[in-house]
């Protein structure tokens, strides 16, 4: 009997199950993963019924003879059927006409990833199976054992991920040519953050702490403080560039690791800027006080040489100039007051920098881990 008569009795129910042999790579740059799977499909073809109590197995050379579903992986970028030592395909026919079709394939499948919380992110990838030419009037897909239809994930050991959850679903794909059966396997991957803590977070924290060493060095030791500041800035820049090498360059979102590296870079650059500002203010205010002292000395000498008969006229004239003189003196007094405190600016930095860094870290980890 022909395939037309085979479908005339209604759609053929095809049950599917899978076993994940391995997930070789998960690429954030290409937004895909590569997996090797055993795909098993079952259906009943009454044309293949025979008498007996044992099943009949056919190897890859005879697979093309009976009817098989035209199943394909929807988001597959590339895939291949294993053929060593022979094609890894098998058909087993049972006396009641039930057919088991098993194949071993390796496929690279697209997986859209949201990296805004990288490396504290969770990614949900899918493996979608559809019928290429047979619509829902010809073929119906279903999972043979529901969520237990996919096995092998429990024994997988991935380099950067842990499989947290997985489930299956049944849906339909709608195109211009019709409605087609679809089976979807969902699995959730959680990234292991320990590697990134040791590789990126700890070095960046140590660089920030190293930049604070300059607060305990005398402000007169210009070469030592500049050397520490510049070295930590350049090292942090190199660390930031290295952290981006394994990530896609063309993306419009800021990742969690970028935020943290930016925070660390800001603190390191701030430590260098703190010394530059303090050193500049010390030199500027010291010069200002010296000039003010000279002006006051000249004014006092003029006041001593002024004759007593011009005191009234001087007092009238000083009525206009006294506010300016008072402002200059107040400015000098305040400047001299801050000159003394500028020598203690490092003391304030020793407390404010670590305290603010700890507070920002608390907000950072709470937000990206729990929100």
From TrEMBL:
Identify the keywords attached in UniProt to this record, alphabetized: Cell membrane, Chloride, Chloride channel, Disulfide bond, Glycoprotein, Ion channel, Ion transport, Membrane, Signal, Synapse, Transmembrane, Transmembrane helix, Transport
- Per UniProt, residues of the Neurotransmitter-gated ion-channel transmembrane domain are 200-302
Q: Mind telling me which Pfam families this protein's record contains?
A: Neur_chan_LBD, Neur_chan_memb
Q: Name one GO molecular function term.
A: GABA-gated chloride ion channel activity
Q: What is its main location?
A: membrane
Tell me where on the tree of life, at the top rank, the source sits. Eukaryota
Organism of provenance = Chelonoidis abingdonii
Matches recorded under Gene3D superfamilies: Neurotransmitter-gated ion-channel ligand-binding domain, Neurotransmitter-gated ion-channel transmembrane domain
Annotated family: Belongs to the ligand-gated ion channel (TC 1.A.9) family. Gamma-aminobutyric acid receptor (TC 1.A.9.5) subfamily. GABRP sub-subfamily.
Q: Describe the location of the Neurotransmitter-gated ion-channel ligand-binding domain by residue ranges.
A: 9-192
Location in the cell reads:
Apical cell membrane; Synaptic cell membrane
The identity of this protein, by name, is: Gamma-aminobutyric acid receptor subunit pi
- Report the transmembrane regions from the record: 193-217, 223-247, 259-282, 351-370
Q: How does it sit in the membrane?
A: Multi-pass membrane protein
Q: Which reaction does it catalyse?
A: chloride(in) = chloride(out)
Task: Outline the subunit composition.
Answer: Heteropentamer, formed by a combination of alpha (GABRA1-6), beta (GABRB1-3), gamma (GABRG1-3), delta (GABRD), epsilon (GABRE), rho (GABRR1-3), pi (GABRP) and theta (GABRQ) chains, each subunit exhibiting distinct physiological and pharmacological properties.
Q: Which SUPFAM superfamilies match?
A: Neurotransmitter-gated ion-channel transmembrane pore, Nicotinic receptor ligand binding domain-like
Q: Cellular component per GO? A: apical plasma membrane; chloride channel complex; synaptic membrane
**Role, per record:** Pi subunit of the heteropentameric ligand-gated chloride channel gated by gamma-aminobutyric acid (GABA). GABA-gated chloride channels, also named GABA(A) receptors (GABAAR), consist of five subunits arranged around a central pore and contain GABA active binding site(s) located at the alpha and beta subunit interfaces. When activated by GABA, GABAARs selectively allow the flow of chloride anions across the cell membrane down their electrochemical gradient. Pi-containing GABAARs are mostly located in peripheral tissues.
């Amino acid at each position: 009997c022909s395939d037309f008569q085979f479908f005339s009795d209604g759609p053929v129910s095809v049950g599917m199950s899978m076993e994940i042999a391995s997930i070789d790579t998960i690429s954030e740059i290409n937004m895909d993963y590569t997996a090797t799977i055993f795909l098993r499909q079952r259906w009943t073809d009454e044309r293949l019924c025979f008498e007996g109590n044992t099943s009949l197995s056919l190897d890859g050379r005879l697979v093309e003879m009976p009817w098989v579903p035209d199943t394909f992986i929807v988001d597959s970028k590339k895939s291949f059927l294993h053929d060593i030592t022979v094609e890894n395909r098998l058909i087993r026919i049972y006396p009641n006409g039930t057919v088991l079709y098993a194949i071993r394939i390796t496929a690279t499948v697209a997986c859209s990833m949201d990296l805004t919380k990288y490396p504290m992110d969770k990614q949900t990838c899918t493996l979608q199976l559809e019928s290429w030419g047979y619509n829902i009037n010809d073929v119906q897909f279903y999972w043979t054992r529901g969520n237990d239809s996919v096995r092998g994930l429990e024994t997988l050991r991935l380099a950067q991920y842990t499989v947290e959850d997985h489930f299956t679903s049944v849906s339909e794909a709608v195109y211009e040519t019709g409605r087609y059966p679809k089976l979807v396997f969902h699995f959730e991957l959680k990234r292991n953050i320990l590697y990134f803590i040791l590789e990126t977070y700890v070095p960046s924290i140590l660089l920030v702490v190293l930049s604070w060493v300059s607060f305990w060095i005398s402000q007169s030791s210009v070469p030592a403080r500049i050397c520490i500041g510049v070295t930590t800035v350049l090292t942090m820049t190199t660390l930031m560039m290295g952290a981006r090498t394994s990530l896609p360059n063309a993306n419009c979102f800021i990742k969690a690791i970028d935020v943290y590296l930016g925070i660390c870079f800001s603190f390191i650059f701030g430590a260098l800027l703190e010394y530059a500002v303090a050193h500049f203010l010390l030199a500027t205010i010291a010069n200002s006080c010296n000039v003010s002292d000279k002006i006051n000395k000249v004014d006092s000498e003029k006041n001593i040489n002024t004759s007593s008969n011009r005191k009234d006229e001087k007092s009238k004239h000083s009525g206009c100039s006294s506010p300016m003189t008072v402002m200059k003196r107040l400015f000098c007094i305040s400047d001299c007051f801050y000159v003394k405190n500028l020598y203690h600016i490092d003391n304030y930095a020793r407390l404010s920098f670590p305290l603010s860094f700890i507070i920002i870290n608390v907000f950072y980890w709470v937000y990206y881990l729990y929100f």
